[in-house]
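Need tokens for this chain, all 166 residues.
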Amino acid sequence: MATTFTDEMRAEARRLHAEGLGCNAIAKRIGISPAAVSRWAKREGLVFDRSRTKRAVEAHTVDLAAARLRLVGKMATAAEGMLDSIGSPYLVYNFGGKDNTYEEHTLASPPVEVKRSIIVTAGIAFDKASRIVERDPDVSGPVSTLQKLETAFESILRTTDTPDGA
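Here are the structure tokens for all 166 residues:
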């Protein structure tokens, strides 16, 4: 990349600017840094058309919002699946011993520490999803999913809150 902006480069930059090329495109074509082109344009009183950049940024912003909503959906689905499994039979197993054996037992429901872990994990997913929805408040789809999750959390907490702590 050139370190000096020669008269020939300035003439070529002016021609490219007149064709509607942006700062970065001009810099690439003439082999000088975009910052040098930008400083030159400012001294010359030239401005670059930013409408394409603005549209690209707007489109990217929409794409990011859509990606966040897809993430909310995945997080909600995962959390719901975990919460749905909280009352299901739970398989415990063991490898080893002196005879290197495999043993398994099915419990009627997960142990309390597993239930707690499920609730905490689902709660974190709910919190993260809520923050995403707060960032994009104009969306309505994930809100109903989050309301369902909130109801499920409350229900699970009521069923796991027993006097003996089990």
